[in-house]
Design brief:
single chain, about 250 residues, alpha+beta, 4-stranded antiparallel beta sheet, two-stranded antiparallel ribbon, about 55% helix, flat
Amino acid sequence: MLALVLVSGCDLLRFHNDPVVARVQWRRLRTSDIKEALGESFSPQNEDMFIEQWVDRQLWYIEAKKNVRMNDHLRSQVKEYRSSLIVREFQEQKVFNKIMIVENEVLDYYDKHHEEFISHQQSAFIEIYSTLSREAASGVLTAVKNSERPLVPAQLKLVHKGGCVEPLDKAIFANNTKSPLGPIFHAGKYYVISIIQYYPENSLLHVEHVRDDIIQKLQVAARANALQKKQKELKDHINVKIFKTSDR
């Protein structure tokens, strides 16, 4: 009995630290589930969207199970999807986990491909904050003006003139000022923007402002090479035969 009490107490503590944020019948969504899907740092807006999508998915699944029976076609699709998941997990754990893009590779790519990083229109590298209330946005604006780090997470972005929604685009490129901008209201949110760098037309973008793009390009190439190498290795070690039929 004492052991049962101790286990129950631990469960209560665990559940207290990992509260239920949504429930559909017996299905529960906990904070840990959201962190696993979105990462440790996520905005309240992203959390709300994830919860809403999770609830919708449970509702559809509950209703679908009442009306759809498994058949050979569905079982085959489930088997294929399960196979794809296992393959994908193997690739992530044993093939892609060895890929590492170092700074010298980034700089080398940048030096050899300057033409890719010339902005043919006005551009700006910005730090953008979004909140649901004007008061919160005003607090962010004050913090930025005082060179303090706001509590609201920021997103670093390279934007081109005409590439943002009109209120943000107009504010960013109105007079090329580096003073913090905002609050700017659009679609239910308030934005504060800090301009880090302006670029006139036909400017070469700084490497630090295109680093993420370069890393993404290098990772795509590295993943493709790693897959090709591993696939060749598998063909060399596993007996494979392809039988030609008379129809070919």
